[in-house]
Amino acid sequence: MSIVITVAPTGPIATKADNAHLPTAPEEIANDVHAAYRAGAAVAHIHLRDADQRPTADLGIARRVMDLIQEKCPILIQMSTGVGLTVPFEEREKLVELRPRMATLNPCSMSFGEGEFLNPPKGVRRLAARMRELDVKPELEIYDSGHLDACLRLYEEGLLAEPLQFSIVLGVRGGMAATPENLMMMARRLPAGCIWQIVAIGKANLELTAMALALGGNARAGLEDCLYLRKGVLARNVELVERTAALVKALQLPLADANETAHRLRLPGGHPKGK
Ligand code: KMH
Ligand code: ZN
């Protein structure tokens, strides 16, 4: 099976004070996404920032970022509905009205570092139903083992369409730690036929990405998850994507392009390989 690389260039927490290469303005985000596309990424996971670098769900900024990316390349845009810890759920869920090809769906509330990440059950169901209506493909973000059970309940309630698509997120303080044991346990528990990727936060990023690739998962790369290329060396987004693409190549696995990824996820407008 070919490997989907998702670039996650920005994220909700870090600022340029943590890594000066972090893209925050719409043009900066679009430029990094374009470079990542050229380096092998098929999907772009997008967080938005305002002029003061704060996370925002502003629809004007979202539209601008989507337009700038689409002018540059046909990468599949996955809008984060996680947005940032300070932005209310009711603002975050409106982002799917712009009909990105995909968006994240975070199934449960949790502690998140020093903050709280609020995803109330009624809001999650409302958002899942709306995404299904709009044909926006959810990526189900699983930070803890019970989050998988919550997603499977949404599926049983008819709120999610197959194929289910999961991110196993390891290394958020408040969720599962970034260990091989946790990755193995979660990968084993995933339902048959699903599509999944590893999101390994922090210094275990590279080794857990290698492990996920060996287990049949996809990969995510970018400054949202990992600010350093190696100890003491701050990364650029394109370097993290190039590193991941090199890892995929070293494992002798083919890379999926955007069109093949759309087809595999059964997104509207995805065509069989080569068409
Ligand atoms: N940075 C992720 C671990 C989302 O994008 O929907 C949490 C997040 C969720 O940002
Ligand atoms: Zn995110």
Task: Compute the number of structural domains.
Answer: 1
Question: What is the succession of H and E elements?
Answer: EHEHEHEEEHEHEHEHEEEHH
CATH superfamily: Aldolase class I
Largest sheet: 8 strands, parallel, barrel
Biggest sheet strand order reads 1-2-3-4-7-8-9-10
Tell me the CATH architecture.
Alpha-Beta Barrel
Number of beta strands: 12
Low-confidence stretches: none
CATH class: Alpha Beta
Cα-atom Rg, whole angstroms?
Answer: 17 Å
Give the proportion of residues in helices: 25-40%
Q: Judging from the principal axes of the Cα atoms, what is the shape? A: globular
**Strand residues, percent:** 15-25%
Tally of separate helices: 9
Distance between the termini: 18 Å
Mean pLDDT: 97
Ligand types: (5S)-5-amino-3-OXO-hexanoic acid, zinc ion
Structural class: alpha/beta
The CATH topology assignment is TIM Barrel
